[in-house]
Amino acid sequence: MMPYKVIVVDDSAFMRRIISDLIEHEPGFKVIGTAKNGREAIDLIGAQKPDLVTMDVEMPEMNGLEALGLIMQQHPLPVIMLSGINEQGMRETIMALELGAFDFIRKPSASTSSHDIKQVGQQLREQLQAAMNAVERRAARQAALADKTTERLAPPPKKPDASSLDKARFDPAKAVPDSLKKTDDLRSMPAKDAAPVKSKELPDRRASGLPRKKADNLPTAGPVKKSRESQAGSDLASAAGRQPGTRAKLPERTVSVEKPAVSHKVAPVEPKIRTGYTDLVAIGTSTGGPKALRAVLEQLPEAFPAPVIIVQHMPPNFTKSLAQRLNTLTKLNVVEAEDGMVLQAGEVYIAPGGYHMNVTAAGDGSLKLTLSNEAPRNGHRPSVDVMYESLLPLRMLKRHIVLLTGMGSDGAKVMKQLYDTGVTSTIAESEETCVVYGMPRSAVELGCVTEVLPLHEIGKRLIQVVK
């Protein structure tokens, strides 16, 4: 298999060398060219036709954002952004993700330790591989859809003309089966030589039909059996009915009655909630999330009658830039979550990078956010599973659980638990609009998704289900 072709774009010759070396540690990728600004990158991409591009954000002459916009117009392909850790770099990285960049990694610096550089390299190669997996999966899906379209458009088999039908219908030579074309057929045989013909038993039509399917997940009631005591009572009653005026004699035997087992399991105590809302929306996402979140949140009205809590896989500080960016683009108030915040309807809370986010019931009946730096779950902190898990006790709320585009399976396992315990709705983004169909696919495969929707329909659906 030929390695995937990569172009590295950065204004620093030192950084171009570092990034190229990190990429080529993976034999499946080969750097075929480098560029020192966006303008050179556009020309090189047109000439070399790479499979992927890594792009610095801040560059002279034409920066990464400008180049990315042109690439998406002229040569759409996966672009991994390399972002600085300053505020300007983080803000521009969020904008790049909205423009269509596949994902980003934090750019190593000259002072970065060798250990950290190895981590950056690992992250970069994982991003590159995920990008190519997504491209190949999308191509396979489009090919399958094209095959189905061709199959639907194929002309129907040619019908025989009327003359051939008439001939087939009335040709006496064809009307008699070959098995009966014998001189010594049954009609020419003497009656005494003819073998007796046994009548053929027809199969029961009901037995030959397909068995009826039972409704999924519905318990079926078994036959009702009488207990020994009730059966004995019936027999005595029958006997008494046959011999009026006589008294039935009870059988001389002892019937042992088993006492039902006493369960010592204590039902979980649901917290008392006193809020001004009855619904809560929880969204989990990863690769491709910033653009997907914008598409969903832009559709929600300012007076949306529920709080929205979000886990987006991102490093520390980037989630603050994401919240600020979404706050300027939507009618809702979007903030990076802080420990102790009280959930309010019409507010959006994004878990900060590096912290798990939970919803807990406070003593006054309100719902609050708590942050923790416990170990990563599914390799992530914040983790979607952790956020969803905190919603399990809140059965008095109508909980609407959403999984958008993202690598891996974070969120799917606990979505299944919520589904099994009677959550109001579970929504997964469909493959056709996902940047990476990973997290939603995992939930679909677990059978815990009530609706699979393209991205542009998810916000509208939330408006309908949240009352």
Quick overview of this protein structure:
This protein has 467 residues and is of the alpha/beta class. The chain has helices at 13-23, 38-48, 64-74, 87-99, 114-153, 162-170, 172-175, 205-208, 228-242, 289-297, 318-329, 384-389, 412-420, 439-445, 455-465, and strands at residues 4-9, 29-35, 52-56, 79-83, 103-106, 279-285, 308-312, 333-336, 347-350, 356-361, 367-372, 398-403, 425-429, 451-453. It has 15 helices and 14 strands.
Please mark out the parts with pLDDT under 50 across 5 or more consecutive residues, or reply none.
165-267
The coarse overall form would be: globular
The order of strands across the largest sheet is 8-9-7-6-12-13-14
What share of the residues lie within helices? 25-40%
Radius of gyration: 35 Å
Number of E-state strands: 14
Compute the number of helices.
15
The pLDDT mean sits at: 81
User: How large is the share of residues in beta strands?
Assistant: 15-25%
H/E element sequence: EHEHEHEHEHHHHHEHEHEEEEHEHEHEH
Major beta sheet summary? 7 strands, parallel
Which structural class is indicated by helix and strand composition?
alpha/beta
**Beginning-to-end CA distance, first to last residue:** 54 Å
